[in-house]
């Protein structure tokens, strides 16, 4: 089925917005539909799709180039406060049903922005970091966090404490998944995100001399060791004993994998007995009332704010 009428260009004098009422028999309709619905298509064409007024404005503020805007109501285009340019950034109007079909969210905000993705988005975000805000010397490494909403919340927590960066290992949800973006609530544009990357690439992204902390509530053996790591309550670790902290957080089902633990052991091997162990910790968060674990984002937030409490006085001194 194709709509009998053609797409039509219009101008709203009250809102001062020029837009096109897009019909399904227009080639641009099919292109936009494929771009919104297919992540592979977006990656191939190096595009980002953001839903909602806040995310679109955050993308513009980060310096990304806006290619097109799709709305289900012309008033939403006016509220966006951006000038339309039919050649470089056309505005399109579709009906509400089409918007609901295109949206990845249960309740569509009625606005979709299509952006050109820069070659290295992490560098763009680092360069556009908030003026006067010093980054906390913490790298958060995510392992097998497969639920997009959870990963979005993790990125949000990292941005809230102004961590240095987030690294996603292969197996995590894609950071630019539309649900992950929604869970991040705009935080994706406030902290550099690398990945997903392979485990062997990790040394290139972490700093020499860091201490390594794994978030895990599994109890160790009688010797207080957990596979070569010192098992400590999260608020008893000396996070300021090194220039940088690398914090590993895993998915809620399996936690941080044995492959990652083994890799960190290899990374911290030293000829001086005992020194390597002093750089590797398993952080335990004590729980009560029969609760076995916190969800990923909650546990990470507890750890990050404890680390910030320890490191902030040292950062102020330097």
TrEMBL record:
Swiss-Prot/TrEMBL GO biological process terms: methylation; RNA processing
Keyword annotations: Methyltransferase, Transferase
Keyword Methyltransferase belongs to the record: yes
Domain of life where this protein originates: Eukaryota
Domain called tRNA/rRNA methyltransferase SpoU type: residue spans: 138-305
Coiled-coil ranges per UniProt: none
Presence of keyword Cell membrane: no
A single MF term (Gene Ontology): RNA binding
Protein name in UniProt: Putative rrna methyltransferase 3 mitochondrial
Organism name: Anopheles braziliensis
């Amino acid at each position: 089925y194709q709509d009998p009428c053609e797409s039509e260009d219009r101008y709203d004098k009250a809102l001062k917005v020029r837009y096109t009422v897009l019909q399904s028999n227009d080639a641009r309709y099919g292109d936009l539909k494929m771009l919104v619905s297919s992540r592979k298509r977006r990656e191939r064409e190096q595009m980002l799709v953001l839903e909602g007024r806040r995310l679109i404005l955050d993308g513009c503020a980060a310096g990304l180039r806006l290619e097109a805007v799709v709305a289900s109501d012309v008033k939403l285009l006016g509220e966006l406060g951006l000038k339309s340019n039919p050649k470089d950034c056309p505005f399109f109007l579709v009906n509400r049903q089409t918007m609901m079909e295109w949206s990845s969210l249960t309740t569509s905000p009625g606005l979709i922005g299509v952006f050109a993705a820069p070659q290295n988005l992490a560098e763009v975000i680092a360069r556009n970091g908030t003026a006067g805000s010093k980054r906390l010397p913490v790298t958060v490494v995510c392992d097998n966090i497969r639920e997009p909403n959870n990963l979005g919340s993790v990125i949000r927590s990292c941005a809230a404490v102004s961590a240095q960066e987030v690294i996603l290992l292969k197996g995590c949800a894609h950071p630019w998944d539309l649900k992950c973006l929604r869970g991040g609530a705009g935080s994706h544009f406030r902290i550099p995100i690398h990945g997903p990357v392979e485990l062997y690439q990790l040394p290139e992204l972490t700093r020499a001399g860091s201490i390594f902390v794994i978030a895990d509530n599994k109890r160790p053996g009688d010797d207080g060791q957990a596979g070569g790591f010192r098992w400590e309550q999260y608020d008893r670790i000396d996070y300021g004993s090194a220039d940088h902290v690398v914090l590993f957080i895993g998915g809620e089902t399996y936690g941080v994998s044995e492959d990652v633990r083994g890799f960190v052991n290899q990374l911290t091997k030293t000829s001086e007995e005992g020194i390597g162990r002093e750089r590797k910790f398993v952080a335990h968060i004590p729980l009560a009332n029969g609760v076995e674990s916190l969800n990923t984002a909650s546990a990470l937030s507890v750890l990050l704010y404890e680390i910030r409490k320890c490191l902030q006085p040292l950062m102020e001194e330097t």
